[in-house]
Fold this sequence. Notes:
The protein is built from 7 helices and no strands. Helix content is 71%, strand content 0%.
Amino acid sequence: MFLADRAGLSQKQLAKALKLHPGTISAWQRGKRLPNRRAMQALPGTLRCTEAEIETVAAVFGEWRRKMASKQGRTAEDLQETRAEYQAPQYHAKAEARHLELGRALDKLAKLLFPDR
């Protein structure tokens, strides 16, 4: 979500721009789903970045999630919350704050890796 944040788009705005349900964007964030071909073709223009940058950020975020799970002695499967937990308003507020914090950190990393962008 940090690329959308960097582009000034909320999750709902990104979903609207891509003509998708916001739940689809949420599933991407949680690693539950991957963008289909049409979405992947539209994402770079919508997020004002390259497809390679999207793939790099996705790989870094996925690796971060796996490392965080292993530090807690759990597998990625163990970290799957129930549908009810995902629907709780307090969960969404905390998750959004974590995503924004991670996005800012990844944005700094991207600036170091891609200084000409």
